[in-house]
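[job 0417] fold request received: Transferrin receptor 2
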Amino acid sequence: MDSVTGLISGAAGGGAQANEGVEEGGGVRRRVPPIELKLVPLEEGSEVTLNSDVMILQRQMDRRKAVVYLTLSGLLIFTTAFLLGYVAFRGMCRLCGNDGELIPLSDAAGAQHAPEGGVMYMAELREMLKKYLTEERIESTLRRVSRASHPPGSSEGNAVAREILQNLQNLRMDHTWTDSHYATLQFPSRTQPNTLWLVDSEGEELEEIPLDSEGYCAYSATGTATGGVVYVNYGRREDFEQLRALGVALNGSIAVARVGGAVSFAEKVWHAQEAGHVGVLIYPDPADVPQDPRRLGLHSNAVISEHVHLGSGDPFTPGFPSFNHTQFPSTQSSGLPIIPAQPISANVASKLLSQLSGSSCPRGWQGRLPYVQCVLGPGFTGPGERRVKMAVYNTMKPVLLNNIFASIEGKIEPDHYIIIGAQRDSWGPGAVKSGVGTALLMELARTFSNMVENGFSPRRSLLFVSWDGGEFGNVGATEWLESLCSEESALLGFALILVHLSCLFVCRVKPLYLNSGAYSFTAFGGVPAMQLHFTEDARSYPFVNTQLDSVGRLQELLQGRLGSVGRAVAELVGLMVLKLSHDQILPLDVTCYSNTVQQLSSKLNQHTAQLQSRGLSPQWVFSARGDYSRAAKNLHEAIKNSDIQDERLARLYNTRIMRVEYYFLSQYVSVVETPFRHVFNGRGDHTLSALADHVSLLRSAPHLFNEARFRRQLALFTWTLQGAANALSGDVWNIDNPL
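[job 0417] inference complete; emitting structure tokens
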């Protein structure tokens, strides 16, 4: 901790040595449903309100429409709450209606009666929140954080960390501290840039193709790779299946994939690696990413950078915290790729793809690159046999990461937390990637501090966190989570709401994804999570994960309304925090997974004959589903018929709700080899999705069905589901489980 204090305060020490040589420019979909919000047109001189049908930030409008777009995509604000039973699909919580629309934060759910001891009504707290939120501080903090690139371990990154720590210490917080981890991060080499060539059949270099020196894929394998080029569309699993069906030779070639397709860079590289490719190049296609600089678009030489570790946290300490690498045996995440990956610009992609020969692309694969007639490769047109050679020379460096915490203690349940957090670091200026989140975090911390000074007493503790290492796979947040995993009680005291902002408010339910900062909390730690994603339909912001993500471009998109729109977003998040810290019973629906397992039951029923012919029966999973459904229904009825003003009883119900998510972590797989152990939201052979995919082979490819593997999958899933049912029941002997 002394070394942490030394770094944050600017003093020399071990942390500085660890970060030496790190330059400032070092630059799966899960079923837990987040919420996507859209911002409706705003008009000056009006107030933000919550109407009776749906939570919508709106203002009075005259006949002249003024549309303000907030694009804060890629931003990670966490609102982690010990509470939350668990969230899945459409019925994730009482905050959302049946159609995925966010309902008002009314007093009915949590403040029907005035609690004793002078606790304020929700309506009073709303007014207090509005009173203390300000536009000016949001914009000024954003400008300060985004004035230059500030990757982890850089001088600018450490300067931003010191200022945030000092600002939090100046507030009336109960506690302020730092949490540090030594993590292994990958940066471009300062002496040997990544390169790309066209070569002949003998490997002789014919032409070097210039690359952006600042663009790279963190955690790429290093070295060289040479082969033909195959266009793989978005690099999704189904894209590679289609290429195989067309008979395209993939083995030994270099894949060229375009950004997007609802898959991360890490997933694109993983799929290419599984298909036999020896390298991957990833580019932004004008069909997916606007590329007209005159209209807020990328220029055609710009690249988009993203890490390619199929996981989160430090990949060299999988499943345990990276306090000091010398304490642990040498190991690495199974999600690290073994083939090199590199981002390229649209111009470079056009140069390569315009020269390909081979089969024509399937329908829907055609992008908008100039001079490109969409063909798949792997050969090149013209005389001679030409190939592509790529070389990646990124280097690993130990970096001291610093998460910064400040807390306001709860008055009734001080050991239960709501965590509001944001990513602090960025490869570029990061106005949207980290700046907006940090600005909202700091303004909410200041606002709630003022509210406490003026009579607000939160039921549960509030924890404000500035996470480090987000660009490399949410390393800081994941390492902190891993440090708690040795104490089950610590994990059972948390749950997570990830707020991912980008524009226009209307709530929609969508799955989380691997790069989400909330993903590891649920999939690894068994902590409930949901994500609020603000998206804008009419106009996109294409600069996230580039060196062009600046305050100026964001202001241009918002037509100078950054402060006012930022305040509106802060108010919405603040209202959610108020509700989560105010309600006696956590406002979450525990019946959601019953519907999910019912879908599996239906699929198993479709294959009854094939299973019975192999001596297999899904009866036990049906029984476990019934137990869970009954336990969830009984808990719901018990809460409905109880006096929730009874603090002991309310705490008992809340504990049973939040234990469910933890018990959906499979206890039968290794946390090191399979860190995402959650059977619904994790990754691996133990998950519900893997089981469903496997049973589907009985019809699509019966020769690939593995009976021994299926027996194991079915048994492990059933045992995990039964354990969750027992935990939710609170009394295993009362579960009706007829044989």
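[job 0417] notes: The radius of gyration is 26 Å. Residues 117 and 457 are 10 Å apart (CA to CA).
[job 0417] exit 0
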